[in-house]
Amino acid sequence: MPYVQADNTGGLEKKVTLQTLHKMRGQEKFVMVSLYDAPMAAMAQKCSVEAVLIGDSLGMTVLGYDSVIPVTMEQMIYHVEAVARGNNKSLIIGDLPFMTYATPQQALENAARIMRSGAHMVKIEGGAWLAETIQMLTDRGIPVCAHIGLTPQSVHKFGGFRVQGRQTDRAQTLLEDTKILNEAGADLLLVECVPSALGTEITKASEIPVIGIGAGDQTDAQVLVINDILGLTPQPPKFSKNFLQEAGDIPSALKLYRDHVKAGTFPAQEHQFT
Ligand code: KIV
User: Fold this and answer.
1) d(C-alpha 212, C-alpha 199), whole Å
2) Which atom from ligand 1 is nearest to the alpha carbon of 192?
3) Is 233 domain-assigned?
């Protein structure tokens, strides 16, 4: 019996909360999709996708920029509102874009704007330096998903979209970040583009659910960007999969992705990093 019940059309029966996702840990993987508009958000609800992210990837997938850096608060708010109008059952997570959470006070003001737009939680990129910010937000009732590993807002610091944590010292830092972000009160941890063995270590070291994207098959959940699922990305990343090709239509593609995550068959070996 699936942890989150489907209604008689296959859609989510009840609202998914953070507590639902915490309870699923160790019992059943949950599924997340990064998407940006009302019809796709409604489709995700219909296909029992437990969490939807309005990622700042929208800068690249929808707005045509070559990085996420130009994305503004106004653009994020516009898309969070659209997603919230289309879906009243999945947990809705909104990204804070580049340089909108450089200080705890700035983070508080901007996180409040994202929450008022319809998000249930905010996502911010970074490690130990975010501890004070996370504490400030969670103390004031704003749940936080912390994003580590390949954090696209730091693309220029990394010199490109590169796998993180292949060197021992960087892997160690990511493990220390995991501990600090847990202690600071983060409610979810998202790990992007790390070797699978490190993704597994981070998951074991974390007390909160870990969502992976290019972080192997042992995390508590998986997230993919809707454009990748639907084969819309000209040069798709290794960790993604075009589910539309096999499924034939959009709802079937979302369901196929969901079924593979639940069964532990996505990501397969070919989508993972060593
Ligand atoms: O912005 C986004 O869509 C993301 C996902 C790739 C995790 O951060």
Assistant:
1) 7
2) 7
3) yes
In a domain, 2, yes or no: no
Give domain status of residue 28, yes or no.
yes
Answer whether 61's CB lies under 8 Å from 233's CB: yes
User: Which of 223, 227, 229, 238 for a ligand 1 pocket mutation test, highest count of atoms within 8 Å of Cβ?
Assistant: 223
Token digits for 231?
A: 């084969």
Crossing angle of helices 73-86 and 38-46, rounded to 10°: 40
- Dump pLDDT digits (tens) for 49-108: 999 999 999 999 999 999 999 999 999 999 999 999 999 999 999 999 999 999 999 999
* Amino acid, single-letter form, for residue 64: G
What is the reported pTM?
0.97
Please confirm whether the linkage preceding 152 is cis (ω < 30° from 0).
no
**CATH number for the domain that contains residue 247:** 3.20.20.60
Backbone Cα Rg of the chain: 17
Q: How many distinct structural domains can be found in the chain?
A: 1
Is the Cβ–Cβ distance between 90 and 101 less than 8 Å? no
Domain containing 61: what range? 18-271
Bridge partners of residue 222, in order along the sequence: 31, 212
3-state secondary structure of 78: helix
Compute the C-alpha angle 50/162/154, nearest 5°.
75
Question: Is 125 annotated for ligand binding?
Answer: yes
Residue 10 lies in a domain: no
Is 55 touching ligand 1 by the criterion CB < 6 Å? yes
